[in-house]
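Q: Protein A?
A:
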Amino acid sequence: QVQLVESGGGLVQAGDSLRLSCAASGRTLTFSRYTMGWFRQAPGKEREFVAGISRSGGSTYYADSVKGRFTISRDNAKNTVYLQMNSLKPEDTAVYYCAASPRWSGVRYGSSEYDYWGQGTQVTVSS
């Protein structure tokens, strides 16, 4: 089993930045064997893909809505994945979730392709 804990959310103004972190833990965890992703869910909307990163960190993929503003990265020595969010917009307001899967080496962007999920962290962007 893998436990994921997100942190770093909060209330900010449009144009501000936030960095989300997701710490992974587990008795037999080898973090570098997990593809990682960030998803978000706004009120009344379905959960959507935001960004994904391969096991090594060498490949990343972004939703068009965040491309050029968000950056996903990982530190395998710290069992942590990050989401740097710049130039935040009110439409970025959502609960942000990190997800993990050991089944793939490359980036995945479908929620069904992930096996473990965190409980989420709220990001609210005021105009």
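Q: Protein B?
A:
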Amino acid sequence: QVQFVESGGGLVQPGGSLRLSCAASGSIFSMGWYRQAPGKQRELVAAITSGGSTDYADSVKGRFTISRDNTKNTVYLQMMSLKPEDTAVYYCNRHPVPYSYWGQGAQVTVSS
């Protein structure tokens, strides 16, 4: 199965921005960015189809943008106006049915 490597996480102040990247080891189709905060279940943040249609969780709508580069088998998540509640480990995976394998994720910490 395809494997994923997430990158681009870090520590940012509230209101700041980050761009996450997800490099896949093979061809990708419909993809999603998911996140898991401490003590909480993993949740879908954004999704993009192979044709480029997108969908977002209400909590990030208007602040996050998902995009993809099919020539590089890479998916991106541009995050703006970050809030402390966005703090989580962010993962990419197939959507709507993720592969059983999850990458190491990218830690995003929003704090002053």
